[in-house]
Structures are given as C-alpha cells and as structure tokens.
Amino acid sequence: MHAHHTLETGHIGLNVSDIQRSKKFYQEVFGFQILKESLQAGREWAFLSNGDKLPITLWQQSKGYFEKARPGLHHLSFQVPDMDMVKEFEKKLMALNVTFQYDGVVPHSEGAQSGGIFFEDPDGIRLEIYAPGGAEGCQAPTPGAPSCGFF
Asked: Can you spell out the DSSP letters for 96-136?
C-alpha cells in the first residue's frame, strides 16, 4: 500500500424494513434515481444514484425501528455547498413531516461556521444535511459537545 493513497467512502448500505417506503423517501428527499434493484421476495434491494455516483444502497432485511443503543451506524451525513441549500432541504423535509432532532439549523458546535439539520428517515436512521459555512450565530443545542454526536 502506498503511503500517499487515500481512502474515500464508496457507498453506504442501509438496512430498511420497507424497501418501497425507503426508496420513495430517498428519491423524494435527495432526488436519487434507481440505478438497479431487485424486488425478488426475500431479496429486495435498491442501488440509488445521484447521477455520477452510487451513494446509497438499500437492503430490506430488517424489522422494527433503528436501534440507537446498539453498535452500528451512528448517523449518515450529506454535505451541500451552502446554507441556502440546507434550508431548501429543510422545507422539503418539513412538507414530508419527517422527525427533526433540533428546531432548524444548528452549528456543529458552539461558535462553528459549519452546521445543518438533523432528522430521521422512515426507519429512524439518523441523517444530517450540512454546509461548511452559514451557521454562525445559530445556537448550539449541546454546549461542549458536537451537535451530530448525541441525537
């Protein structure tokens, strides 16, 4: 392995309880397109694309609701260019009646320029959409701790 080699995240695979509901959510919220899928009973999955990448794969192989108290995925974060885009997503999510962790945009920590919105998908998987700037002056929800850490 070369010392200068850097790793990049390829895609994130999420266990979901209802493939149709999750496909609809991720398509409506993020504009993802179905790249490939299987609706074979007991082996339902979908590869979601944003046009040039495959960021998310969905696998219908779980029941119930996301368990925050169990080891595994903590949250999935998406970066957008600016706070205006974060607020566009916030409006779309409000119209879909998603569960938000905080009321509006919060900075990543006290005094941070970066920040965003924190919410859940239909299975309770924790999601974040943030921008690298524009959260100045917003109130941090948890003094002394990252906003993305305890939601």
From this structure: TTPPBSSSS-EESSTT-S-EEEEEE-TT--EEEEEESS--T
If DSSP codes are grouped into helix, strand and coil, which group holds residue 35?
A: strand
Please tell me whether residues 49 and 94 are part of one structural domain. no
Domain boundary (61, 90, 107) is at 61
Dist CA 23 CA 70 (whole Å)? 24
The span from the CA of 53 to the CA of 78, in Å, is 13
The parent domain of residue 103 ranges over 75-143
pTM for the predicted model, two decimal places: 0.91
Number of structural domains (the chain) is: 2
Burial (CB count within 10 angstroms: exposed 0-12, middle 13-18, buried 19+), residue 56: buried
Residues 52-82 pLDDT 10s? 899 999 999 999 999 988 899 999 999 999 9
